[in-house]
TrEMBL record:
Cited Gene3D superfamilies: NAD(P)-binding Rossmann-like Domain
Positions in coiled-coil regions: none
Protein's name in the database: Oxidoreductase, short chain dehydrogenase/reductase family
Pfam family, one: adh_short
Domain of life: Bacteria
Amino acid sequence: MQGNPDMPFSDYKTALVTGASSGIGEAVVERLCAEGLQVHALARSADKLAALAQRT
């Protein structure tokens, strides 16, 4: 993900990501967690979502 100067991550504390268990949604969750945001992730696959939660 490339930073958007108009919306720096540091201005936000919480994010909601849908489709978070794979693909772009998974990458977004990983990046937002790395930036220190509290992430609420939604997905159809509870197992994949649990694995993502363990990694981040």
